[in-house]
Amino acid sequence: MVYLSKKSEKNICKFRGQVSREQREALNGHRSAVFWFTGLSGSGKSTIAHAVEKHLHDRGIRSYVFDGDNVRHGLCGDLSFSPVARSENNRRIAEVCKLFADSGTACLCAFISPYAEDRQHVRDIVGEDDFHEIYIACPVETCEERDCKGYYKLAREGKIKNYTGISAPYEEPEAPQLRVNTAGQSVEQSVGVVLEYVLGVLQPTA
Ligand SMILES: Nc1ncnc2c1ncn2[C@@H]1O[C@H](COP(=O)(O)OP(=O)(O)OP(=O)(O)O)[C@@H](O)[C@H]1O
Ligand SMILES: [Mg+2]
Asked: Which domain of life is it from (predicted)?
């Protein structure tokens, strides 16, 4: 692609600003971080992330939801679903989240992100201390019963190829910071568990 350059071809240095992340966090009265919701389609990532955002907003906490489908419209609208494009998709989201976290905003990211390696790349970009993996667990049978978007049916009929959980793998997080099983739990219960965790992380340091 014509707009891509090699690192070695660039002559760019960083400008040091006068306001630090710590100062922005102090102004906000809370810390910032990146909460990465991973799980099968229909497991409840968007439902929980948006409900948590509303709770945070009502408490005066700055937060923003990055949702899989939404970023595909703009920021990553030029990318396909090939493995290379998926990793570029992740890289861009991770870099944007890093900027948002630096700005003092809590990021709630709802992406299936089925591959452990891709999630690790996001962790590497965002940084170990800021990255919180939240596994929204739900058996594929339940997700399929929910079939909110009708995609499971299409995947079963072979009309969608490489569908996570049906014809493509989902690699479960081995040691997520939080695991929530949404099967047999009300939305309110799941939101409550995640909100408690998120609030704990965002608490200002004494
Ligand atoms: N405990 C629960 N937590 C979250 N959602 C639940 C729960 N119980 C039932 N649901 C329902 O499951 C569905 C989850 O859909 P949602 O769009 O949030 O999934 P998703 O993980 O974002 O999927 P996708 O990856 O396709 O965007 C909603 O219809 C929601 O009402
Ligand atoms: Mg979603």
From this structure: Bacteria
